[in-house]
Amino acid sequence: MRTKLLAFAIAAGIGLTTVSPSDAATSRIAVHFDLTKGQQPENIALAPDGTAYVTFAAARQVAAISPEGTIRILATLPAPADGGAPALGFALTTGIVRTADGTLYFLYASGDPATTGLYRLRPGRKPQRIAALPANGLPNGLAYDEPAKTFYLTDSVLGSISTVPLHGGPARTWSSAPELAAAGFLGANGIKVRHGAIWATNLDRGTLLRIPIRQGRPGPVQVKATGLAGSLHR
Q: Which residues partner with 162 through β-bridges?
């Protein structure tokens, strides 16, 4: 389905910019975010009507942003009693996906075994954890394989990609290839499913990786790009 507006979140927390599909050169800032309220956008999912669903990392929130720039908070995850996600030291919402029926799925990294995991958020409902994830990790990127009814997610601290069925259940490590490992800070980060393969980035190494999906299992890791911005080792 084609969205009315293409949109992307500015990682620095400045705001949300919309780009018209008919004129990719035309853009506008739809809304400015308030960093004092923890409105630092981490990830984004789009609806056909142009609504942008984002995770506000530091605020532990999921929000809906209309094409006109109205922000509506859909959920706020409970703060851990102490500590936070490894490597960062605070709890945060990270990857988000919207399925065709309007359900949102997102990751929460709290450093707490009782709350770290993959969550489902149906319209008008409260968020429900459908898969527990390792509290000593940092679940970060999230992607959905529609034909396989499977979520793929990266863990930036553990350097791995795991899978979770659409309806929830135990997370299973899909790949822990060396190319996903951190090299000082955070490893496997962003993730997408495209043309029968997993595409993932490694923040520390500044790489873009392609891993073929072969009957549900990972094929050999292919390094498709190196020296990407944000890497600690160039």
A: 153, 173
Q: In Å, what is the CA distance from 48 to each residue of 22, 52, 67, 221?
A: 15, 9, 11, 33
Contact 164, 155 (CB under 8 A): no
CA distance 172 to 153: 10
Which residues does 196 contact at the CB level (< 8 Å), separation at least 6? 212, 213
The token pair at 156 is 């930036």
Reading phi first (left if > 0) and then psi (alpha if -120 to 50, else beta), residue 111 is in: left
Given a contact cutoff of 8 angstroms between Cβ atoms, the answer to whether 138 and 109 are in contact is: yes
Q: How many CB atoms lie within 10 A of CB 223?
A: 12
pLDDT, tens digit, for every residue of 132-182? 999 999 999 999 999 999 999 999 999 999 999 999 999 999 999 999 999
- Residue 180: what are its φ and ψ, rounded to 5°? -90, -10
**Contact predicate 188/173, CB 8 Å:** no
CA distance 94 to 65: 17
